[in-house]
Write a structure and sequence with these properties.
Layout (H helix, E strand, L loop, with lengths): L1 E2 L2 E3 L1 H12 L3 H24 L4 E7 L2 E6 L7 H25 L5 H14 L7 H14 L1 H29 L5 H28 L12 E6 L3 H5 L7 E7 L5 E5 H8 L1
Parallel strand pairs: 2-3, 5-6
Antiparallel strand pairs: 1-2, 3-4, 6-7
Helix pairs in contact: 1-2, 2-3, 2-4, 3-4, 3-5, 5-6, 6-7
């Protein structure tokens, strides 16, 4: 459901209903506030680096602020923006414990739990995006997106299995089942969005490159899809192609991507 720049996944309403029926509404509201603070930390960090937000998505596994042109930031800036969310949750959670504000202990525990959950290296969590950024530069974005979205699906299945045990032990608590299902059924969409976003970033005529950056040369003779898998956000590639007549052609990474799409 869309409300301007805010999009809400239907799973959120299911979670709210079960929180209401199982008398866990305080936990639901506390988690919502903690997650909102978490996302605000991302947003503020992005604004500091000159970014802006064009969409906020509320899903069963939390909120996601979509930062405009996020992958045009340097790798350091991206990691810093991503780590700010879990960091603020940890600071809030530990501060409440340190100050011994007992009536906020539940809020403290939720903040710490959200921080720990978000640093799990699985997309689309913060930890997953940090790993995606790091591995993507070494192995190429396309390969990394395929690999990490596959891991996302496996993680979702594991969560759903644990969720069944959760329901047996704590009737009416289906939060893990819904969360796991979200991971499983969104992985294909996640992969397509990652690849599309990468292609659009590469061919963006107004793209501002982070200087200095590594310029790499690839030599190949064959399918462009075999060479494009090495491309990433942080390096610039030239491709030297040897045609059937023994001639060499130098193509930029934009040229190759435009040929693919």
């Amino acid at each position: 459901m869309s409300f301007g720049r805010i999009k809400i996944h239907t799973g959120v309403f299911i979670l709210f209903l079960f929180a209401l029926l199982s008398n866990r509404i305080n936990m639901f509201v506390s988690a919502f506030i903690a997650v909102t603070i978490h996302e605000m930390a991302h947003i503020i960090a992005a604004i500091v680096f000159g970014g802006s937000v064009f969409e906020i998505c509320i899903t069963p596994i939390g909120e996601f602020a979509r930062i405009k042109d996020f992958w045009k930031f340097s790798q350091f800036e991206r990691v810093f923006i991503l780590i700010c969310g879990p960091l603020i949750n940890i600071i809030i959670g530990l501060s409440i414990k340190f100050l011994e504000i007992k009536y906020l202990y539940l809020f403290s525990d939720i903040n710490i739990a959200i921080a720990i959950f978000n640093i799990i290296p699985v997309l689309p969590l913060d930890g997953g995006n940090i790993l995606y950024s790091i591995i993507g530069r070494k192995k190429g974005v396309i390969y990394t997106a395929k690999f990490m979205t596959a891991i996302e699906g496996v993680f979702g299945i594991i969560l759903m299995f644990v969720g069944v045990i959760q329901v047996i032990l704590y009737p009416f608590n289906i939060s893990l089942i819904i969360t796991g299902a979200y991971f499983v059924f969104s992985k294909r969409k996640e992969y397509l969005e990652r690849v599309s976003e990468f292609y659009m970033t590469v061919i963006d005529k107004n793209r501002i490159y982070n200087i200095p950056m590594n310029v790499k040369t690839l030599y190949f003779n064959g399918d462009y899809r075999e060479v494009i898998k090495y491309f990433n956000y942080d390096d610039y590639f030239f491709v030297i192609e040897n045609d059937s007549f023994g001639n060499y052609k130098k193509r930029s990474m934009e040229d190759i991507v435009e040929c693919i799409i």
